[in-house]
Design goal:
Blueprint (H helix, E strand, L loop, with lengths): L1 E2 L4 E6 L6 E2 L4 E5 L2 H29 L5 H26 L2 E3 L4 E6 L6 E2 L4 E6 L3 E9 L11 E6 L2 E13 L8 E9 L4
Antiparallel strand pairs: 1-8, 2-4, 2-7, 3-6, 4-5, 6-8, 9-12, 10-11, 11-12
Helix pairs in contact: 1-2
Length: 190
């Protein structure tokens, strides 16, 4: 499940349920208009401070002003540049991108709703590799070893044999005294 790292109003939902998405593709755009205005303000401050540094450098070399004034202006310029980097990072976090390729399987938000950190906004599923778990009795546990391949037949494709690899063998039985065995296989529908 994908969630926002920063809070804000959802401006655009660019991925609908059932849609295939690629890694890095933009899925959600949060409102960043205030951040962009703040960035413009900081850019103006940087421009003014850079001009002041040039002026104070010339004046300091001519002993027309004290070097302290130049130092304060340089520190102010460094501070403004840090503010700019902070704003750019915040703006980058208003875009939610797909961390992997997959299919959008659920949408928990709409345009105009509020996104907050840790609150799911979309569910993205990777369906190229499928995992499923079966439960086996203790007497059948010896038939399943980690990394071992097994032929699998599913009800919807009775004439197709799939190869599944054992990716987990439970070490503790569940309430029914059976042990979970997890298989991983490639999705043939891809």
């Amino acid at each position: 499940k994908l969630s926002a790292e920063q809070q804000g109003k959802v401006n655009a939902v660019l991925a609908e349920v059932g849609r295939n998405v690629s890694k890095g593709q933009t899925l959600i755009q949060l409102d960043n208009s205030l951040l962009k205005l703040q960035l413009q303000t900081v850019n103006v401050q940087i421009e003014g401070l850079e001009n002041d540094v040039k002026r104070y450098t010339i004046l300091t070399q001519a002993d027309a002003v004290q070097g302290v004034q130049l130092e304060k202006t340089i520190i102010g310029l460094k501070t403004a540049k840090i503010q700019k980097e902070t704003l750019l990072e915040q703006i980058n976090k208003t875009v939610v991108k797909a961390p992997f390729s997959g299919v959008v399987t659920a949408k928990f938000t709409e345009i105009g709703s509020f996104a907050a950190p840790g609150v799911p906004i979309l569910q993205l599923s990777e369906i190229g590799t499928l995992k499923f778990t079966i439960n086996v009795s203790e007497k059948d546990l010896s038939f399943f070893k980690l990394g071992q391949s097994h032929s699998i037949i599913i009800d919807v494709l009775p004439n197709t044999k799939l190869q599944g690899k054992v990716t987990m063998v439970g070490s503790k039985s569940n309430l029914g005294n059976s042990f979970p065995i997890q298989f991983t296989l490639q999705n043939i529908a891809n």
